[in-house]
Amino acid sequence: MGIGNIFKAFQPKDKVFFVLFEKVADNLVKMSQEFHDGMLDFDLNDDSLLKKMSDYEHKLDDLTHEIFVQLGENFITPFDREDINMLASGLDDIADYIYASSKYIFLYKTPDVKEFSEFSLLIHKSCVEIQNAIKHLNGFTNTAEVKESCIKINSFENIADDVLSQGLVRLFETGDAINIIKTKHVLEYLEIVTDKAEDVANTIENIIIKYA
């Protein structure tokens, strides 16, 4: 191997990892937008939304796997391997829980409740801010923008807590035990999505503290 190739082999693989992370974030935005659109135009007799969520979940699994493959093949990384692992896993968790939420909505044949679309909007907004944070994380050139997105994601999670509380109060007032059990499960899964987004924001903030 020539000296040029040796040098190239040990150059940081920022481009590889950031390209993959940006692809994941782009797909999360698309997935969450489709999910929100589906909650706004809710139809239990049309399971096309569930199929779309399954396709996105598989696509994001493949991207996450590729990040881990690159992690195993590259000696030098743009930031700690542990942080790359945590960020990739956190992003994958968001996709997993969006899909799980849609799955339970259709498996339980859960009736339409207004909190579904309120959650889906908060989820989409969180994914948009994750996309923005990851875009500006590349090269650590605009940490203020990254921090601002993380703050917004944390605020969305706080709002989601209130949506869950209000939704549960309204749900229990119906007195329909079977519907309460089913809908409560879905609402809690939707709230977990915002928790996972907050986890990603916290991971990104920790990366900024270490490297910016």
UniProtKB/TrEMBL annotation:
Short name of any one Pfam family annotated for the protein: PhoU_div
Classification via Gene3D superfamilies: Phosphate transport system protein phou homolog 2, domain 2 (1.20.58.220)
Superkingdom per UniProt: Bacteria
Signal sequence region: none
InterPro entries on file: PhoU-like_sf, Put_Phosphate_transp_reg, UPF0111_domain
Family listed: Belongs to the UPF0111 family.
Name of this chain's protein: DUF47 domain-containing protein
Source organism of this protein record: Marnyiella aurantia
Organismal lineage: Bacteria, Pseudomonadati, Bacteroidota, Flavobacteriia, Flavobacteriales
